[in-house]
Amino acid sequence: MHTRWRDPAQDEGCIAWARGLFNDTARYGTGGVYVNFMPQDEADRVRTGAYGPNYERLAKIKAKYDPNNLFRMNQNIRPQA
Fold first, then answer.
1. 1 partner at 20 to 30 Å CA-CA among 26, 49, 55, 65?
2. Domain of 75?
3. 76: nearest Cα among 58, 52, 64
């Protein structure tokens, strides 16, 4: 769901409307997400929506090649042993 508006005074109402629409139409979607197009407050959806069952494997790979989490300025996969 992508929405835009110009007046910051409308943030609360517009965000509530967009989230309501998202929730009302979620049953028609796949549950997937676009990791390059997610707000910070929905980062918890990245794990299941984008990576699904591959997340654990990717976190182990990340631990091997980027243990200090240098590449974290995206929808991050945290390194894990």
1. 55
2. 31-81
3. 58
**Can you give the chain as a three-state secondary structure string?**
CCCCCCCHHHHHHHHHHHHHHHHHHHHHCCCCCCCCCCCHHHCHHHHHHHHHHHHHHHHHHHHHHCCCCCCCCCCCCCCCC
The mean predicted confidence, pLDDT, of the chain is 87
* Rounded CA separation 65/21 (Å): 40
Please state the domain count of the chain. Answer: 1
Whether 77 and 58 have beta carbons less than 8 Å apart is answered as yes
Query: Does a structural domain hold residue 64?
Result: yes
Structure tokens at 38: 């997610």
pTM value is 0.58
